[in-house]
Design brief:
It is a single chain. The protein is an alpha/beta fold. 42% of the residues lie in helices and 18% in strands. The protein is built from six helices and seven strands; from the N terminus they run E-H-E-H-E-H-E-E-H-H-E-H-E. Strands 1, 2, 3, 4, 5, 6 and 7 form a seven-stranded mixed sheet that branches. Strand 1, helix 1 and strand 2 form a beta-alpha-beta unit. Helix 1 runs parallel beside helix 2. The radius of gyration is 19 Å and the shape is globular.
């Protein structure tokens, strides 16, 4: 028999909620349906494999996890498999570090939020100023949300905010072993 940590965490072998693919409305629907079918008490296990997607959907799923934890007093474990990129890492940030696991060979991708926007300046000057201010407000709010998520992700880990803030613009890929050594996850199975 090979040396393995799996025997320490037998619950991870039979997850209650299995998510894969793009983080989008369809994943959120699947997530809600699977949660509704879960046992009403005891620890839950949620797995995800994703190349990313909509960060706001990831935040909504994470908020559901937080509400279950706070209102029902339940422990919920996170298991990232193969790829936990972008919005997947946003979802992972909803789980305390001591409830996060990755499978061998899994990679995390942490990066800044992206925006593509064309601003058409046309009309009375005050309307132009208002349009520019609205776009700036959108960007500033998105940066604030991103920073909140980054702080949640690294809370309880060895990663200083400044390091994540410095590496995120150029896509920070983190191997499972590095994630464990940085304290971003409890263990690798």
């Amino acid at each position: 028999m090979t040396d393995t940590t799996a025997h320490k965490y037998p619950l991870l072998a039979t997850p209650h909620v299995r998510l894969h693919g793009t983080v989008d409305d369809a994943m959120y629907d699947s997530f809600c349906n699977q949660l509704a079918a879960c046992p009403k008490d005891g620890m839950l296990v949620v797995t995800i494999t994703t190349l990313g997607g909509d960060p706001e959907v990831a935040r909504a799923m994470g908020d559901d996890i937080r509400l279950i934890r706070e209102f029902q007093g339940r422990d919920i474990l996170f298991l990232g498999k193969v790829a936990v990129y972008s919005a997947g890492a946003t979802f992972m940030s909803a789980f305390p570090v001591e409830h996060r696991f990755l499978t061998h060979g899994t990679r995390l991708l942490l990066h800044e939020r992206q925006i593509t926007k064309t601003i058409n300046l046309n009309g009375p000057l005050r309307m132009v100023v208002a349009s520019l201010q609205a776009a700036l407000n959108e960007v500033e709010t998105s940066v604030a949300i991103e920073e909140e998520g980054f702080r949640d992700l690294i809370k309880g880990s060895k990663v200083p905010f400044d390091e994540l803030h410095e590496k995120a613009p150029s896509n920070w890929y983190i191997e499972a072993e590095e994630a464990r050594s940085l304290g971003l996850v409890l263990d690798i199975i």
